[in-house]
Each structure stands twice: as structure tokens, then as C-alpha cells.
Write a structure and sequence with these properties.
The protein contains six helices and three strands, in the order ααββααααβ. With 187 residues, it is mainly α. The chain has a three-stranded antiparallel sheet.
Length: 187
């Protein structure tokens, strides 16, 4: 904007100067080589060329600065996109983790009872009741819930240990190991 004003001011001053030259020229005889108007036109052309060159240089500088600013904006945008993707991945992982915790805390099972056969009599475990009150992890640990093998020592440690700790459920042999008639009642 300042450059345009300078060009306009220069043009006006040259025209003004040209007008004053015409008045002087009217008083003095014209030189044989070039008239004042021709001299003014030549000066205006020279000034116009100078202004054009300066405008071109300024335009190139502005283009370079614009390019640099554009590159900086692209870099910042890339960082923001990267952080956004990371944040999205973190949120997704947290949701999946929380979802897994909710599933572990409030299991959904269709297995009502599990019957464990052994030489001392069948053990009927009310699976759904245990799953709802204790959660899957109490018996299955960090593994995916599903059938698993229990030997005598592991079963006694898991079941009796929990019953004693919580002071609930059967703790003696005959309360869990039922003969045929009572085997469907469960422990």
C-alpha cells in the first residue's frame, strides 16, 4: 500500500514538475535536442521501470514468505494430526480396556451349572450365581473364560479357600461332593 502511494506521489510530483517546466519553457526558448515534455515522459518511464522492478522484487519476497508460512502451517497441521491419531488410539484403548473390565465385573454367562465328576461324588457348581457374585476372574484369572481342568489340590484350594475366606458356602467334603440323590442341588 505504501509503495502504491509512493508511486502515485512520484507520478504527481513528476507531473507537477513537468507543469512547472512547461511554464519555464514558455518563458525560455526550447532546447534543440529534447523538449521538456519529452524529458518528463522519459523520467516518468524511468520511474515506472524502477517502480516495476521494485514491485517485482517485493512480489518475489512476499511469495517466498508465503511459501515459508505455508510450509510451517503444514508442519504444524501434521503434528496436530499425529497427536490427534495418538489421542484417538489412546481413547480407543482405554474404552476397550474399560469395556473388558465391565465385562469382567458384570459377566454374562449362559451356563447355569457346571457338574464336576469325581470318585467321591459329583460336585454341582451353580456357575451363573458364582459368576454374578464373584466375576469371571475369581476362578478363571486373566485367561479368557471357558472350560478348564482342575485337579483335586487346585479345586480344593480354589473352592474351599474362597468359601473359607468369604465365610460362605460349603466347606466340608459332603457338602460339595454329593451322592446321586443330592447331586443336583449344588454347593
Amino acid at each position: 500500500m505504501k509503495k502504491k502511494l509512493c508511486v502515485v506521489a512520484l507520478m504527481a510530483s513528476l507531473l507537477f514538475w513537468g507543469c512547472t517546466q512547461e511554464e519555464k519553457q514558455a518563458e525560455a526558448p526550447a532546447p534543440e535536442s529534447m523538449t521538456a515534455v519529452e524529458q518528463t515522459q522519459e523520467k516518468v518511464e524511468e520511474a515506472t521501470e524502477a517502480v516495476t522492478e521494485k514491485a517485482k522484487a517485493v512480489g518475489e519476497a512476499v511469495e517466498e514468505k508465503s511459501k515459508a508460512v505455508g510450509e510451517a502451517v503444514e508442519e504444524k497441521a501434521a503434528v496436530v494430526v499425529k497427536k490427534s491419531k495418538q489421542t484417538t488410539a489412546d481413547i480407543k484403548a482405554a474404552v476397550e480396556e474399560k469395556s473388558g473390565q465391565i465385562t469382567a465385573d458384570k459377566p454374562t454367562t449362559t451356563v447355569e451349572t457346571v457338574v464336576i465328576d469325581n470318585k467321591n461324588g459329583k460336585v454341582v457348581l451353580p456357575h451363573k450365581k458364582h459368576a454374578e457374585t464373584h466375576g469371571c476372574a475369581a476362578c478363571h484369572g486373566t485367561k479368557k473364560p471357558g472350560p478348564f481342568e482342575l485337579n483335586k489340590d487346585a479345586a480344593h484350594a480354589l473352592c474351599q479357600g474362597c468359601h473359607k475366606k468369604n465365610q460362605a458356602g460349603p466347606t466340608s467334603c459332603t457338602q460339595c461332593h454329593q451322592k446321586k440323590a443330592k447331586a443336583t442341588e449344588g454347593c
